[in-house]
Amino acid sequence: MSVALLGLAIIVPVKAGATASAAEIAHVPWDVANISTLRLLERDSIQNFVNSPEAHKTFVGEPALNGFSPVNVVQFEWADFAGNGKYALVVVWNTPPAAEEGISIYQQNAVGKIDSQQVDLEGYGHEGPLKDAIRDLNGEGKKELLVNIGFGEGTDKAETPVTQWPAVYRLQNGQYVEASREFPGFYDKEVLPPLEAKIAALEKKLDSEAEAKAAGEAVIKEYPSSQPDIDSHTAPEQRKAVRDSEQLALQQSLRFHILHVLGRKPTAEEEKEALEWLNSPDYWVSKYAEPAFEEMGGR
User: Residues 196, 176: one domain?
Assistant: First the structure.
């Protein structure tokens, strides 16, 4: 198979595992006629492209190559977000050695002219196959991008954040915007049910750990530090109950956050529970309660 590159007086042979220069990729029309060819390109070709000036001639929101550092491509996919036969390149990347991760979307507005946009992961690396995150969520023939956004703080950098939630991005006026509120069916069917099941299981577990939890929190109160090392001062069953309590507060706060994103209000009972977390002697329970309480209006 071969493809004539517009703007270049050469023919580029493309085979499985093929390599191509950044200029060649930029000058192949990113459309339905060439998508089979583009999908044959190997990771090294994509990495060379995203680290090249060709990928940053028009950088959305920033001057071209301003402060740009080379990245390592982790995953990539071609996607027709508009449903019009024109494809965008979605890349999950990291920046070694710190391994900070991000997602960038590249669009070809004209042959040889590439726009790029970065999506902030808020400190959390993308997990799972990228192809599963590109879906038509409402059956309208257009694709959306599910981006795993970090939520909640951990005890150290390696654990921050400690969980994630899937935000929905869609194409609007040439840019990719967060539009989670427009897809309530996705959250009601795929996100909230497993989250609520996890919350129910933790609540049931804590019912049987009530005594150990109370004893663990009593130990916490004895130490002046906001984050006492309870592992050194509590029995194993007390530590386990305290951790389960922290995990419940985290998952409940995440649920409140998703409801807030969807424009839904918690019940009076749920508001009362969040306030109780805010006053907990456990630093992490109160910490996880803060975003939920703020999204309720700080009442």
Answer: no
